Amino acid sequence: MGVQKLPLAKAINESLRTALDTDPKVLIMGEDVGKLGGVFRVTDGLQKDFGEDRVIDTPLAESGIVGTAIGLALRGYRPVVEIQFDGFVFPAYDQIVTQLAKMHARALGKIKMPVVIRIPYGGGIGAVEHHSESPEALFAHVAGLKVVSPSNSSDAYWMMQQAIQSDDPVIFFEPKRRYWDKSEVDTESIPAPLHKARVAREGTDLTLAAYGPMVKVCLEAAAAAAEEGKSLEVVDLRSMSPIDFDAVQASVEKTRRLVVVHEAPVFLGTGAEIAARITERCFYHLEAPVLRVGGFHAPYPPARLEEEYLPGLDRVLDTVDRSLAY
């Protein structure tokens, strides 16, 4: 394919197509992933090209979908499961945390669990309840699971490849409001390691750390701050479990300030762990406490209110100003 400018959703589609074409043990399963191509058309055309035995439309039963994927993994397959929306994952939560995450340890390393669970997540699309949530911290807390989220098309393509090739289960959170954002994908490049953070923008005055849908907001905040003479560094974490604390530490030792941004509620969110770790690691470098920006500790609101609920440019810049004021 070479270098192309693709929407994030199409990059995932191309990555799944490559995996299906390369490895006959790769299967795709989920509600409406076949004939419909998924509600966001991420799997569009794959059943037509690879058949109903490789791209499987399942019943509306998330626990059964994940349980079946675990059985297939035990038989040597590499299933890629789609959970249609973030809020639909909870019927499968028991299978994920008590079976999928524990099987490798339970078998003393003799059993691998190469299962990828794709979850479109986050808000910004005007959806109803249970269609806009950010439950990543619930999975990052569970030992035995890898948890990642791309913010751009190139990472979406390569991180999906790496997730499918992993012998450990990967929860792959896809920022649904970025599905249609285009960026370049080079399918012949050498990708960064799956859990390695990247510096998306260099800066000297403060570090913004984010992942998934909030990376774009942080880049916009850095551009706006630059007009006022403030130099913000943006670190795209890419992975919520494990977290590349070394990359965040290196940035904070340079900028001496950190603001962590995610859509999920601030209370007990991923940012809390990052704040605690960086405070421990960088205590003598920090010139301000680590601050966090995120959603409110409340159920996700109706579409008319979601712009008030979601952390946006103004909320990020206000927090930047608070940090710089110390």
Shape summary:
globular
Q: Can you count the helices?
A: 12
The helix/strand order is: EHEHEHEHHEHEHEEEEHEEHEHEHH
Strand sequence of the main sheet, in spatial order?
A: 3-2-4-5-7-6-12
Strand content bin: 15-25%
Described by strand count, sense and barrel closure, the largest sheet is: 7 strands, mixed
Low-pLDDT stretches are none
Number of strands: 14
Q: Structural class of the helix and strand makeup?
A: alpha/beta
The average pLDDT is 97
Helix-residue proportion: 25-40%
Kindly, what is the distance between the CA atoms of the first and last residues, rounded to a whole number of angstroms? Answer: 50 Å
- Give the radius of gyration: 19 Å
Tell me what you see in this structure.
The chain is α/β, with parallel strands linked by helices and 326 residues long. It is 35% helix and 21% strand. The chain is built from 12 helices and 14 strands. A 7-stranded mixed beta sheet has the order 3-2-4-5-7-6-12, with helices on both faces. A 5-stranded mixed beta sheet has the order 9-11-10-13-14, with helices on both faces. A two-stranded antiparallel sheet has the order 1-8. Helix 2 (46-50) links the parallel strand 2 and strand 3. The longest helix is centred in the first third of the chain and has 15 residues, at 8-22. The termini are far apart. The relative contact order is 0.12. The model has no long low-confidence stretch (mean pLDDT 97).
